[in-house]
Amino acid sequence: GENVEQHPSTLSVQEGDSAVIKCTYSDSASNYFPWYKQELGKRPQLIIDIRSNVGEKKDQRIAVTLNKTAKHFSLHITETQPEDSAVYFCAARGYIPTFGRGTSLIVHP
Amino acid sequence: KAGVTQTPRYLIKTRGQQVTLSCSPISGHRSVSWYQQTPGQGLQFLFEYFSETQRNKGNFPGRFSGRQFSNSRSEMNVSTLELGDSALYLCASSLSQGGDQPQHFGDGTRLSIL
Known about the structure:
The structure holds two protein chains of two kinds. By secondary structure, chain A is an all-beta fold. Chain A has strands at 4-7, 10-14, 19-25, 32-38, 45-51, 56-59, 62-67, 72-77, 86-93, 97-99, 103-108. In chain A, the strands form two sheets. In chain A, strands 2, 4, 5, 9, 10 and 11 form a six-stranded mixed beta sheet that branches. In chain A, a hairpin with a 6-residue loop joins strand 4 and strand 5 (45-51). The model of chain A has no long low-confidence stretch (mean pLDDT 95). Chain B has no helices and eleven strands. The mean pLDDT of chain B is 95. Chains A and B meet through strand 4, strand 5, strand 9 and strand 10 of A and strand 5 and strand 10 of B.
């Protein structure tokens, strides 16, 4: 089955810095790659997604890149703010959705 | 537009009992998926329903089952509860079935097994 590896597990940055979270997947049939943000005690929220026919997508301070050949995709957050602090999950969707183990992002004021 | 609604929010059961969780999708959404979230295993896919039919299934034992009604509402049932079933159970809905459909999650049902 699909396997999704996510790194790092914890990321600590200063406010205003950029943050990058990386994921790799194993199933070449995967064609949809969403990213979710989950604050403590709250539901996962879809923040950005990318389909396999696109290499990059941007939404304000958030961007996602996809390298199908290497089977990896990354989340980039620029100008981080304290309210960006949360756990971020990547996912790859082939036959079924498979999630990474999450990255705890801490943004220090 | 109301979001995905899950009931109950919290549930405490003992080993051997069974439990039924409910999920009402966003209005107009016809696909409902269920997930189990634990600190040890992370977010794991249980199953997906569309048009009252289970479309695909994750790697969970047969004690975990579900169904979907004609109004797209879904229920998940877990029988013969085990301590390891303690988890946050999340429901997510999307407009239709398909691997590239954005999913929107509910707040989840926190199930504790004593």
